[in-house]
Each structure stands twice: as C-alpha cells, then as structure tokens.
C-alpha cells in the first residue's frame, strides 16, 4: 500500500511554492534566501535591512477574507444580518477605517493610503476605482507618515516603532483628515504656480486647476462621454510632482513648524520629492513616451538635489528620459510638429523641446559630460506657438511667461549660448584633453565664440548697468539668470585650463631638454600668445565671477533665491568657488546666496560651509591654482617657467600683477554697482 501511494505521488503535480519573500527582496525582485534558525534572510542580513513580510501578511489576510466570503452561508446568513446579532458581540465589528468608504466605493481592497501604505511602496490604483477616489487615495499616500518604504533609507532609530505624523510637528496630525489633505494639496499647487511656474512654464495653470477640480469632484460632468472625461483627469505623477515643488517653497504653518524642528529644512518636503519619484516610476513615466511623461520628467529633474555626488541627487536621469521621449515622439522634426492641431499641446511640446535642449547643453558644460543632442538632431524653429503681433508690443504685461521670454529674445540668445556650451563640452571633456591638455586653437575658438555672443545678445538679455525702470519678478530673475549663465562659461573655461593646461605648454614641459634645440623665436612667440590668452581668460573669469556675486547679492537681499528653483544655483556655486580660491572678499555674497538656497535645497548649506573653508585657506596663503598660476601668481609662474625651460627667451611682464589688480578693482566696482540698486527690483 505504501509503495502504491509513493508511485501515485510521483504522478501528482509539484506543490505550489508559497510566496514567502520579504518586502526588501520583493521590492528588488531578488531571490529571498533564509537559512533555518535565522530571523532574517541573507540579503537583509548583509544590508542590515529589517526583514519584514507585510505584503505576505496582506495577501494572506485578503485570501482569508475572500475565502470566508465564498463559504456556504446556510442559516448563519440570517443571523449575520440581524441587528441584534451584530450588536451582541463587540468583537465582531471591525475598527473604523477612515479610508474604508473610499476603498469600498472604488471596488478595491486598500490599494494605498492606508496603514499598508506606510510600509509598502506606491501601488498603482485599482482600475475600477473612480478618479475621485484614486486622487484622494493618492493624497493619502503622499501625506502619510514616512515608513520603511525603501529599506535603504530605514534607520535604526525608527526600528521597532510605527511612523507618526508627529515627526513633522504638532500641526501635522491634521493630515489624518481627508478634507485637510485636499486643502493642503490645493495650497501647494497654488504655491507652484505663483513661484515655480514663472521659471518653468510647462503647464497651463487654468487647465491644470480645472482638471484637478474635476479629479476631486464627486459628481463628474455628464455632458461628455466617459472616455473623454477620463482624458481630462490629471496624471497622478504630475500631481505628485507639482505638490512636491510647492512644498519646497510654501510658507504653510505645517511646513514652517516642520522646518523649525529640523534645523531649517523640511522633512515633509524632502519626503514628497521621494514619493513623487516613486509615483513616476510606478506609473512608468521613464518607460512610456507621452506628452504628460515628457512634462513630468522635465519637472522632476530640477526638483532633486543639485549635488552630483548625492546618491539621490542630480544625475540627469529624468532629463535623459525626457529627451528620449521627445525623440520617440519625433518632436525634433518640423514636419511632425506642424501636424499638431491643438495650439496648447503644440506650444507645450515646443517649449518642452527647447527646455530639454538647453538643459542638456548647459548640463554637459556644468557637470563635464558629453551632450546627448547635437546641432543636426533637430530642424524645428525657435520657440513660438503663434507669431507675436505688433499689438503685443504695447501690452507685454498681458503675455504669458513663455511669450514674454520669446518677445524679449531669451530663447534665441539661450540657444546660441547652448550651442557654444555644447561645443565646449565636446572639446574639453575628453579623456585625451584631460591627459594631454586643451589644444590652443580650441581654446582660442571658445574665447572668440563667447566674445561674439556677448556683443550680439548680452545687451538685450543681460542685466543693464542701471535699474531705472521697475522690473517685474519674471523680467528681473530672467535677466539675472541669462546674465549669469553667460558669465559662468568663462569660469568653467578657466577651471578647465587650470585643471588640464594647454596642450602645447604641457608637451614642452614633458619634452623639456629635447625642445631646447628648437628655434627659440618661434617657441617664444607661441608661448607669448598662449600667455596673452590666459591673461584674457583670467580677466574675463574674474569679471564674470564678480558680476555673478553682485547679482547674487541683489537677489539674496530681496529674498529671491529662497524662491528660485535652482536656476542660479550652479552659477553662484561655481563663481563663489573661484572667488574663494583667489581669496576675494566678494565671496561673501555667494556664501550668503547658498545659505538662502538651503531653504529649499539642503545641499546648498553644506556647499556654503565648504566655500568659506576654502576662502580661509586662501587667506592663509594656501592658493589652490594649478596651470593658471603663471597669470594668477606671476612671480610663482615665472619661477616655474624658468625651472621648466631653463634660460628661455620668453619673459613675463612683472607689472602684470598690478594691472590685474587694477582690472579686478574696476570689475569689482562694476559688480558692486548692483548692490546699490537692489531696491529697484519688484516682485
């Protein structure tokens, strides 16, 4: 009999393997291996993660509930529906759940926004859920206390306790209410349109507000078909991103209390950035090409930390996604763009293309990377949805931010500068350039291009020498950003020459004695030309850094950098770093600007501390200058040149240090004139 049972067991299918993976392994889709006698799996032990099984518990609970519902009712069904029976046993009634009505109305079992959402990443809403229920549940997820949604961010101090709203201050307990969450979200949306939209005009404010109102309305309009109504609802990742932007700059009492308890930075705002990315990833924003996904990706990129060394910071990932989507949609083709009939959609896509194109070029120059786009990757015209008529000339205040930028010529000037930045990145950020130095003809070409741009565009889009006219907020910050973007290119070029040197000089230093037999006159003439260009580069870089420091001081005194979505951040940081290395006292403007930036970007405070440290070292005589020492430190450069070449016929003007100082003082006076004009700025 036992043999018969054994043979029968061989013919049966293998038992179904139970899904016993922990939450950490499940989130990373890796195999969960737990040895007998251990409380944690091998992955959680090696990473020191909490080995939790909330998903498994929720699945088991759901199976038990569904299994109980499938049991034969018999006579017990009458008892269960009897009012007296239901009231006789207090244990039979489950505790009240504030989200139960929403979940039941949606036909789902707590997709997110409940106590399960505190320990699980973002889950896609149930397809049967109504748009109103899905939006309310999304807000519940965004504003729920931060739990170990990502084991990598789980700290030992939070182990063994459930997250509470009190972590964000006493007022945060109001977030338990659906009505307060909706009111809070609407407030953050308005902050986005008042502060961020003027710098990143990717959305239509009226359209966004109407769609949000429709998403929160319990009685959708019956005049349109069901499919048309669905198309009007907001993308959940777009709403999450806009709310995260608003939290960075909002003065809501809840966020003010949170900042006071965390040393000036909002923990809630930082968590909303992480959850906006979680929603975008769950909604496959980075994988599927669509108009909404392009806009969401472009808005997420500057929302993050601007420190390239931050694991959760600026890596250009979302910018790359936006460019890939735009190319997939063929927005770079004029023939495709002309087929878009809706003016609003066409304007959004054209503006998104130019924003991605400019950001790619500047990002490559700022962070020493090759650009993704080239000059021949697109043939569409400069941004304009409709031609701006003469009537708009007198009514410029009635134009949208997009139209004002085009009317003032910012797009054409920015694109011309972006092409220069793209060329710089291709020539400077090469392995051969890093090892051999920058070719002298390349250096001369970049200097010439920057001079041409200054003569053609800077008088129209830069900051004027005086502020007689009262500018609005958009005009003021746009002019400062355009002005700073140009001048920081000189600082970038200075840093590149200081780090890599000029190839001809490096070759002469490496060959040394072998070149002493060459013609002294030709070698001396070439080296004099190189030193002349380096003098020019020092003068322009110092002038640019002082000018940016002056603009930063003006914006800081008006509190504008507290409201800036990182547009001036890199210019302030790079220029301040150069001034700190040279021991210039004007670095205080940049330090103050970074401290004000730390209100919304936490890493800016650390950058201000580091900048002040470098400045103190420079005052102590520890100059951080390499290949540009021959012009920054003339006496030291002369000694190095003599030691390198022996009795070289090349001479360095000993009075150049004085002329440099005089030029610097003149530039300092020019830059300081902005500090006396701060009162002419108007919001």
UniProtKB/TrEMBL annotation:
Entry keyword annotation includes Nucleus: yes
GO molecular function, one term: DNA-binding transcription factor activity, RNA polymerase II-specific
Keyword Metal-binding applies: yes
Domain Zn(2)-C6 fungal-type: 21-53
GO biological process annotation, one example: DNA-templated transcription
Pfam families: Fungal_trans, Zn_clus
Annotated region described as Disordered, given as residue ranges: 59-103
Biased composition (Low complexity): 76-91
GO cellular component: nucleus
Keywords: Metal-binding, Nucleus
PANTHER family referenced in this protein's UniProt entry, alphabetically: GLUCOSE TRANSPORT TRANSCRIPTION REGULATOR RGT1-RELATED-RELATED, TRANSCRIPTIONAL ACTIVATOR PROTEIN DAL81
UniProt protein name: Zn(2)-C6 fungal-type domain-containing protein
UniProt source species: Schizopora paradoxa
